[in-house]
Amino acid sequence: MRTIIADDHAIMREGLKQLLSTVDELTVTGEAADAEAVHRLLNESSADLLILDLGMPGVSGFQFIANLRATWPKLRVLVLTANIEPRSVRAAFSAGAIGYLTKSGDPSELIAAIDAIRKGNTYVAEEVRFTVDQHDGPNEIPEPSATIMSPIALTRRERQILGMIPHGATNRDIASRLGISPLTARKHRENLMRKLDLHSGAELTAYAVRLGLPAG
């Protein structure tokens, strides 16, 4: 698993690198101190995993995660942050993150998270899950072993449309491909957002990328 560590603190990056050196079949291929460096490293080599600090310079909230997943659909993003606000946790997963850890957590949780991610599952730190459960009640974020698949039943047409969205398809493109009107295509997109409880085009794109559906 080729991994990039993104954190603006050199000591943090070095500590993570030493810890990750104990993980079999994982190689740290780069380190980034800001968003620009993350993009440069991803352009230079195809990474499998990005361990991301949300507080880095140039990282514009959760849109950064959504943009990364839209550009590099196979990239898995593991958030490692001091922020355990329930709103931030939910936003990270909506944007396309596959795991969420706190910097105050035990190092063993990072190893457990990587093992879960390697198997195609999500991972949420116990401290983070407890905080969200206390604030919003249980089941508001993925279970630690929940495979990244849609938990909501989608029709064949909805899955077709969802598969086109990461490729930048407009309502007119979707209409032309499926033989429907642009208005109908727009209605399908709006229904998908309502059905999936998503609130922006970026969130819908991130969700589609995470499912990895074929393009129509």
Spatial ordering of strands, largest sheet: 2-1-3-4-5-6
Helix content: 40-55%
| Average residue-wise pLDDT | 81
N-to-C series of helices and strands: EHEHEHEHEHEHHHHH
Q: Please work out how many helical segments DSSP would assign.
A: 10
Radius of gyration: 18 Å
Gist of the model:
By secondary structure, the protein is an alpha/beta fold. The chain is 49% helix and 12% strand.
Would you write up a description of this structure?
The protein has 216 residues and is an alpha/beta fold. 49% of the residues lie in helices and 12% in strands. The protein is built from ten helices and six strands, in the order E-H-E-H-E-H-E-H-E-H-E-H-H-H-H-H. The chain has helices spanning 10-20, 35-44, 63-71, 86-95, 107-118, 126-136, 156-164, 171-178, 182-196, 201-211, and strands spanning 2-6, 27-32, 49-52, 76-81, 99-102, 123-124. The chain has a six-stranded parallel β-sheet, with helices on both faces. Helix 8 packs across helix 9 (182-196). The radius of gyration is 18 Å and the shape is elongated.
Topology:
Elements: E1 2-6, H1 10-20, E2 27-32, H2 35-44, E3 49-52, H3 63-71, E4 76-81, H4 86-95, E5 99-102, H5 107-118, E6 123-124, H6 126-136, H7 156-164, H8 171-178, H9 182-196, H10 201-211
Parallel strand pairs: 1-2, 1-3, 3-4, 4-5, 5-6
Helix pairs in contact: 3-10, 8-9
